[in-house]
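Hey team,

Filing this mostly as a record. A colleague (T.K.) asked me to run one chain through the structure pipeline before their review meeting, and I want the input and output archived in the tracker in case anyone asks later how it was produced. No errors, nothing strange. Just documentation.

Input sequence:
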Amino acid sequence: MIHPTAFIDSAARLGGGVTVGPHCYVGPGVVLGDHCVLRNSVTIVGQTTCGKDNEFYPGVVIGEPPQDLKYRGEPTRTTIGDGNVFREQVTVHAGTEVAGGVTEIGSHNRFLVGVHIAHDARVGSDCIFSNYVQLAGHVHVEDRVTIGGIVGIHHFTTLGMLSYIGGLTRIVADVPPFMIVEGNPSRVRGFNETGMRRWGYKPDEIKAMREAYRTLFSQKAETSGFSMNERLSKLDTRCEGNGEVHYLCESIRRSLRDGVYGRQLERLRRDTDADRRRFYGQGAPRED
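Output structure:
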């Protein structure tokens, strides 16, 4: 079902049952899986591969080059799984050469109005991004993360699985799995008990996570005089054998041990002074 005003390049590949509405543009490197729906005025370009049952609302732009100084113009990719919904004005940019060259999105996510997914980001599955969430480059969002409206997320941060980010929060450091983070500056305010219940965690697993939150982040814990590493060691002895608590502890340890400014992925950055000089014109004669 292709509207006559839509443009689909002859080199694009469309699966069965794809719907392309009025004034859409599909470029030559695009692959659309079965039963994808482009409502109207949707642009999908670049080396972009989409799975099946994805839905794109008006004004969505997928696969354009990244807004990044280190991008040198080589073809990079965007990959999208199955069953995602991209609401109005969502933008997803392709990766950069020095970071693996791909922006990745999993399956069954919901990206609401005005969300931006920058270059080299990795988004898991079953996430909800509320209106105008702005995801910077190289961010990793794990599975089942919920993000409130108008949230800015610093590059190279990691948002742990089943974490919850309150609206209007500024994220500049890694968010621990299963925790609720809010504010500016942001801090852990609780654990995501509601999310754990909705995703079918057992009462004893929720109880163990409640104990983990109290041990690590409660007001009593933060005023106890014990460092975070000491609190983690104490938690290890209390919750041995609980996989979710173990994952929480290991995620925090990685941020403490490997992180720069609280971001474990910051050590992976590969941009150089030369990348920046190309933009700022260093070495060019100045006019007085």
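Quick notes for T.K.: The chain is about 20% helix and 25% strand. The longest strand covers residues 186-191.
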